[in-house]
Amino acid sequence: MADPAEIRRALHILVEPGGVTELRIVGAEYARGRVGTLSGYYDYDHLEDLVQAAAEWDGRSRGVYVTLNPVRPDVLARAANRLRVPVQQGESSTSDQDILRRRWLPIDLDPVRPSGVSSTDLEHDLALQAQARIFDHLAGLGWPEPVMADSGNGAHLLYRIDLPNNDDARQTVERVLKTLASQFSDRMVSIDTSVANAARIWKLYGTTSRKGDSTPERPHRLSRILYVPPYLAKERAA
Q1: Taking the complete model, does pTM exceed 0.85, yes or no?
Q2: Which residues, other chains included, contact 83 with Cβ-Cβ below 8 Å and sequence gap of 6+?
Q3: Looking at the record's lineage, which domain of life comes first (predicted)?
């Protein structure tokens, strides 16, 4: 079951005042026997509508995501503060060209396991341990503290950046991810190097990670934020 308070907290960290984000719900059971992708755009003044939509669909979908970087305000008109049910062929979701700037450098740590299943408790713990090692490594290089999160199956680190949305920035993010993967990926946990695109969608914390069936050994888990650096908490409280 979704946690609306955690969803709200996540949105006020990820979405800047005045910003627009896309809510995308994958594998949504929107009608009897019908499964598809739902999408809608929400401005900062309507984040509470996004919270309610995400919580409502969490139990009826495979995953609930938002765009990580800010979206151009004019694409709000694709589905203004509402969900399209479902996204029809030819309708647009967020492309790299729709992103204003890069505000986050995402690191996604995923346990190595068969596809289509949730992680075991041990696999989950190994991803969180790798998260701590990367945090310490980058802190030693002078990086600022990131947002740290439990993705439900693995672990996330989100580093605050401010880069244009262009090829140079994309290549910079790709290089960082590939370098970290060469240093920290192993046979148990891997760093996903495919998350460098500007329009990357990201797990909305406070919603459930659902891969395969939930079993005692491989349960579905709620995603959540583990740590917000003081500078960012202060910025968002202002």
Answers
A1: yes
A2: 23, 25, 38, 39, 40, 53, 57
A3: Bacteria
Tokens of 166: 């262009």
Contact 222, 3 (CB under 8 A): yes
Annotated domain spans of the chain: 4-237
Which CATH code is given to the segment(s) 4-237? 3.90.920
C-alpha span between 202 and 70 (Å, rounded): 12
pLDDT single digits (tens) 172-231: 999 999 999 999 999 999 999 999 999 999 999 999 999 999 999 999 999 999 999 999
pLDDT digits (tens, 9 = 90+) for 222-236: 999 999 999 988 777
Contacts of 109 (CB under 8 A, 6+ apart): 127, 130, 131, 134, 154, 155, 156, 157, 189, 190, 191, 192
Closest by Cα among 21, 112, 35 to 70: 21
Report the alpha-carbon distance of residue 4 to residue 18 in Å, rounded: 21
Structure tokens at 207: 């919603």
- Per the CB < 8 A criterion, the answer to whether 84 and 40 are in contact is yes
Question: Which amino acid, one-letter code, is at 86?
Answer: P
Amino acid at 237: A
